[in-house]
Design goal:
The protein has 216 residues and is α+β, with helices and mostly antiparallel strands. It has helices at residues 38-43, 54-79, 84-93, 98-110, 116-129, 134-143, 151-155, 162-173, 180-192, 197-204; strands spanning 8-16, 24-28, 33-36, 51-53. It has three domains: 8-110, Arc Repressor Mutant, subunit A (Orthogonal Bundle), CATH 1.10.10; 116-155; 162-213. The protein is built from ten helices and four strands; from the N terminus they run βββαβααααααααα. Strands 3-2-1-4 form a four-stranded antiparallel sheet.
Amino acid sequence: MSLPTTLTMKLESLTPIPGPTGRIRLKFDNGATMKVYPEVVADCVLYVGKEFSEEDFKTLEETARKASARQRAVRIVSASAVSEKELQRRLLQRGEREEDVQQSVAWLKDLNVLDDRQVAAEVVRKCIAKGFGPARTRQELYGKGVPKELWDEALAEYPEMDDEIRQFLESHLRGEKPDRKQIQQLTGALARRGHSYEAIRAALRKYTDELDEFEP
């Protein structure tokens, strides 16, 4: 929003905006408008008739901007578990300023809302439930912005995935012997799911004895 050209301006109205965010539309006597959260009204002691100098208006804009970043951060973490890095990235992608992003993240950390270790554990649980192997899970941890120093701890109790590999093969082969092309396709598919070639080959031996000639 551009700053008003007059030295002073007066707040003309505060109107609640319908919707879940609870924001309020401010209208000034020079035609300028601004949408703010209720906390801004309280923090800046806003009321109809209040006058603003140019400096006062700048302060109001800054307060409103920071509150917007905080509220956006709250909505993101309320929707799903996110790491600090992912939250920063998503806020920046939505146009929030770097300074406001850092302050919002620090604010949530102080409230113990952000926990990268908890995010890592949740990522691992979901990957196991989907039948992914450790390699794919590491990719997911990276994508979620979880610090690498937390990976080993989160992966420490990773179970053997032999049953998941066998179920995957059975769903595709239904007991039939695969040809070389199928072996390549299934191996590639399972590798993309994060399983090791050793585990894949061990499971495939139930269906074929020709693996010694096959190099992935």
